[in-house]
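Notes from hallway chat w/ T.B., transcribed later so I don't forget. T.B. wanted the structure written out for a chain they're using in a teaching module, and asked if we could keep both sequence and structure tokens in one place. Agreed to drop them here.
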Amino acid sequence: MKTTAPKKAATLHDVAREAGVSLITASRALSKPELVSDKTLERVKLAVAATGYLPNLLAGGLKSRKSQMIAGILPAVSVAQFLPTLQALTDTLAQAGYQLIVGQSGYNQAREDALINTMISRRPDGLFMAGLVGSASARERLVQAGIPVVESWDYSDRPVDMLVGFSHLKVGGAIAGYFLSKGWKRVGIASADDHRARQRCEGFVATWGREVPTAFVPAPSGLALGRQALSQLLAQAPDLQAIYCSSDQMAQGVMIEAQARGLRVPQDLALCGFGNAEFSAHVEPALTTVSVDGRLIGELSARLILERCAGHTPQQPIVDIGFQILERASTAQNP
């Protein structure tokens, strides 16, 4: 069977030939349209449409030292709590003419390092991280690259460059304090095994004052793993009064498993999640959770990157946005 060779991409020469102008005029019309007449500009635009020409943004970026691209690395785009951040980041950057290119690390350090190396090789104008840069070698590469970097959804007083986030240790401590205020003594933790979730567990235990029954499941966690976690916890401690879950998705799975076992929430088992997912206020009973303004993280991160891209030094390169415990029906009654 005869195969058709891939069509060769149109070049600027093709555009110039189609428009009946010189190569220099075609280039000027696309890069600095204010320098050519309206008639010439219109001819070049029609030629671009006719040939299907796409400008080589990388080549243009090498001349201007700007790619108009910001790299973003997330553990997983399927995690609901990151979606408002991603949307706000994309929208704010787009308003300034920048595009966001996103990669997923899969909660894997080696993959994160490889992604950072790949992103840097594409010469982005900045980098956004959902989390902290995990390895010393990656931190050093980013410093050498000399591009704006914003780490987020975590906290450090020594970021690579800039940071918009909050302390997961404090979140865990606040949840433990909330449980203590309820008078509960037999409590447990259902947690994903990623770094930030483990930090919240550490903060919880530090405030509680002793170890508590804990079930760890792979990240990202979801309904099935939440059901699995409750099974593990009840095998350790059948008389639990309350459970902190490292995500609202996991808490929903725990709730489903509890109800399947005939346990009433919150009368027999109180539940608290993390992330304030959209569904958490609408399940029955409504889920107590920790709210973090993910959209604000995205907006502030974009503004910091844009400020540095413009050659300015941000007055506040480290922003702690804090968090809030939202009490709902899943913990409203004391068993």
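Follow-up for T.B.: The CA atoms of residues 39 and 45 lie 10 Å apart. Might be a good example for the class.
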